[in-house]
Amino acid sequence: MSSARLSQLLSFYQDAPNDPFILFALAKEYEGLGQLDTALQHYLELKEKQADYVGLYYHLGKLYEVLLQQKTAWDTYTEGMKVARSIGDQHALSELAGARLNLGDEEDFEA
After folding, report:
1. What is the 3-state secondary structure (H, E, C) of the chain?
2. Could you give the C-alpha distances from 106 to 41, 59, 64, 103, in angstroms and in order?
3. Close Cβ partners of 109 (under 8 Å, ≥ 6 residues apart)
4. Check: CATH 1.25.40.10 for 52-111?
5. Annotated domain spans of the chain
6. Are 16 and 22 in contact (CB under 8 A)?
7. What is the pLDDT of residue 111?
8. 53: pLDDT confidence band, cut at 50, 70 and 90?
């Protein structure tokens, strides 16, 4: 499956492979097309290139939930909460905390 939007995003990506918005948009587009492994790769590339892109953590966590990787989702939300605190983004912090709470509590994810 392909889309005109995906083709356009891939063209933008070739021109600016480090642009966090383009990486995020690619991940979301692949996710919408059901290409979850490719979406995950782009989310992880974004995390590697710009770990303070706070919007990434909610969507990456949700993808991990879809992939039935609850512990990894929990850890992703927790990491995102740290990023949100460090940049003072209370809205993102609240969303990430809510997503994490929906998974359970700390005792559910202790090693």
Report:
1. CCCHHHHHHHHHHHHCCCCHHHHHHHHHHHHHCCCHHHHHHHHHHHHHHCCCCCHHHHHHHHHHHHCCCHHHHHHHHHHHHHHHHHHCCHHHHHHHHHHHHHHCCHHHHCC
2. 27, 20, 17, 10
3. 70, 71, 74, 75, 103
4. yes
5. 1-50, 52-111
6. yes
7. 59
8. very high
Q: How far apart are the C-alpha atoms of 28 and 36, rounded to whole Å?
A: 9
- Residue 5, pLDDT above cutoff 80: yes
Q: For helices 36-49 and 55-66, give the axis angle rounded to 10 degrees.
A: 150
Q: Which amino acid is at 87?
A: I
Distances (CA, A) of 82 to 23, 25, 91: 21, 23, 13
Structure tokens at 56: 């990434």
Q: Rounded distance, CA 66 to CA 73, Å? A: 9
The number of residues making up the chain comes to 111
Q: CA 111 to CA 99: how far, in whole Å?
A: 20
Report the Cα 8 to chain-centroid distance in Å.
21
